[in-house]
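Q: I have 123 residues here and want to know how they pack in 3D. Can you give me a structure?
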Amino acid sequence: VTSTEILLAARCKKVYANAHTYHINSISVNSDGETFLSADDLRINMWNLEIAEQSFNLVDIKPSNMEDLTEVITSAEFHPTHCHTLAYSSSKGCIRLADMRAAALCDQHAKVRARRGRGGGGL
């Protein structure tokens, strides 16, 4: 009896560092094949796959006074076919749709889908 055990090891190919203060909760590759986004509790950044040293801030919900913080970003993802569109959700149960054609900073979302009040049946 012979044992053929395969050992796999991951190697870091590129590091995209120093753009997030909090733990990253989402990474989404864009359909353009050139960019991806990363999201933490308060920010969403867009990166070019070829440029690891620079990112562009798309959404920033950090209040000037952290005591005024009422929600955090829970997830973010690019649209599967429309490379200019992304959606992100928050701890308040909102899903926001952002269109990068409208503005470089997407804090003013295009659409919001929020939970109805208690007993309202959800989305």
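Q: Anything worth noting?
A: The radius of gyration is 18 Å. The chain is about 0% helix and 35% strand.
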